[in-house]
Amino acid sequence: MERRTIGAAALAVGAVGLGCMPMSWGYSGSxxxxxxxxxxxxxxxxxxxxxxxTADMYGPYTNELLVGRALRERRGDAFVSTKVGLLVGEQxxxxxxxxxxxxxxxxxxxxxxQTDVIDLYQLHRADPEVxxxxxxGAMAELVQAGKVRALGLCAVGARGGRxxxxxxxxxxxxxxxxxxRQLNRVQQVFPVSAVEAELSVWSPEALDALxxxxxxxxxxxxxxxxxxxxxxxxxLTPGEGFEPDDMRARHPRFTAEMMAANQPIVAGLRRVAAxxxxxxxxxxxxxxxxxxxGRHVVPVPGAKQQRWVTENAAASGLRxxxxxxxxxxxxxxxxxxxx
Length: 339
Hints:
alpha/beta, eight-stranded parallel beta sheet, two-stranded antiparallel sheet, 11 helices, 35% helix, globular
């Protein structure tokens, strides 16, 4: 697989990563199988999908334990990214950016992951009660202590505005203004190596300001949800419904009405895929489009089965033409709000 670099330290990873969250959290619980997910992790590493993206809150904790089972045998093949800063309760999620907590959380993640160093340690969300410089300073100390190689900031869910119904919205270019201000602040404390934020065919807003901010500074961009929580794969049926514990059951874009309204996006991806061969899928076109947005961009699609890991990895070899890229970029804007 093609290799890409993250940050000024030139940390090398496979061009397509693996989001591990669906293996333990966020999606249908009845479809989770630990052994099947472990096989998917090994398949990813076999294919050169080296970036494994997890977080202590996924589960909570169980996702890191699962990834740790794979790392025990394959640490040299993997680039491990995990996150700190969010605590999961019964009915709520709260931020904790206190330096003492960050240090304890890192040690706990190292134990669960069965490794002595985390390649990329990301701040999952800034704590509004703690100056972000203090949290970032504690994370920088972990680099100096040899427990972490590089630092990143996760901007998923940290948007500064919304756009609904595909209609023009004056604040679109300001969606990530707050994140960029935060990045400018922490950059003064210790270098940012990567930013993780949503980027996909149906959520392209990061292209306006956040992605260029990273590119001009040599900072890696981890594209979260590049397959639109599964919608862009073309494998979901409008009206089929989701299990109550699946986050899509409460997502406005996954109502039967909105899924039907957004089918032209999937149809467009299918048209482009057909030009590249009968085995090429809409998901691969969606990932190839993300890969084409810059050499510093690494899509991190979530998956928990070997067949999806294999399909996603193959997208790294798909080269879209100028016509393809223009057609995908010109697809109808998604209907429905983000949240």
